[in-house]
Amino acid sequence: MSEENTLLQIQELIESAESSLGTARALLRSVTGVTDTAHEKLSGRAGSMGSSFSENSKVVEGVFDGQNMVDANGETYPVPANYASKSKLVEGDGMKLTITDEGKFIYKQIAPIKRRTVMGSLIQEDGQYRVLVDGKAYRVLLASVTFYRAEIGDQVTILLPDGEEANWGAIDAVIPKHLAEAAAHKSVAKDTREDADGELSPAMEDENS
């Protein structure tokens, strides 16, 4: 197994463990009453939503936290990374989860939060992929990195909640490092040519004087 594949496998295991940890925290809160400030904020945003039951399914509404859906009670539900990546879910998006009698989880985005777009560089920090924007590193889903075949150093456009603090970004587009460097070199060359065209030769200066 190559080093890259090993790192990807480790990242997937970390994301799976974090999802399980979120569920465990929700259970702990239900027993001890101890709250999590970040989840409480999302839970409060999900407060206007609710749950409903039918003969064949259970419907839960909540807010996407960058990796999971958090309902009004602070309970977390793991959102499939591939779905979150392809749908470009942003931290704070309102969601609905339908759980069928067969145990199938069906997610749907129902209240997208207002977004803003920023660009940064893809880095790896503490074994996790992040996008560095103006000194702040935003976590991104491994599924998004692999879907876009992004590599360390690539310029990445991510979506963030507008006017809200966030820890996660949703990858919107990727500019490979070699293309970004080529564009930068082309821009420098163009500026150099324009500067050269703007200069007058000594003979022309004499004629104009």
Topology:
Layout: H1 3-32, H2 37-45, E1 51-53, E2 57-64, E3 68-71, E4 76-78, H3 81-87, E5 94-100, E6 105-111, E7 115-125, E8 128-133, E9 136-139, H4 142-147, E10 155-161, E11 170-175, H5 177-198, H6 202-208
Antiparallel strand pairs: 1-2, 2-3, 2-5, 3-4, 5-6, 7-8, 7-10, 8-9, 10-11
- Kindly name the structural category: alpha+beta
* Overall structural domain count: 2
Q: How much helical structure, as a percent, in the residues?
A: 25-40%
Largest sheet: 6 strands, antiparallel
Mean pLDDT: 79
Shape: elongated
Question: If you had to describe this structure to a student in words, what would you say it looks like?
Answer:
By secondary structure, the chain is an alpha+beta fold. It folds into 2 domains: 3-111, no CATH class; 115-184, Nucleic acid-binding proteins (OB fold (Dihydrolipoamide Acetyltransferase, E2P), Beta Barrel). 39% of the residues lie in helices and 32% in strands. It has 6 helices and 11 strands. It has helices at residues 3-32, 37-45, 81-87, 142-147, 177-198, 202-208; strands at residues 51-53, 57-64, 68-71, 76-78, 94-100, 105-111, 115-125, 128-133, 136-139, 155-161, 170-175. Strands 1, 2, 3, 4, 5 and 6 form a 6-stranded antiparallel beta sheet that branches. Strands 9-8-7-10-11 form a 5-stranded antiparallel beta sheet. Strand 5 (94-100) and strand 6 form a beta hairpin. It is elongated and about 75 Å long. Mean pLDDT is 79; it is low at 200-205.
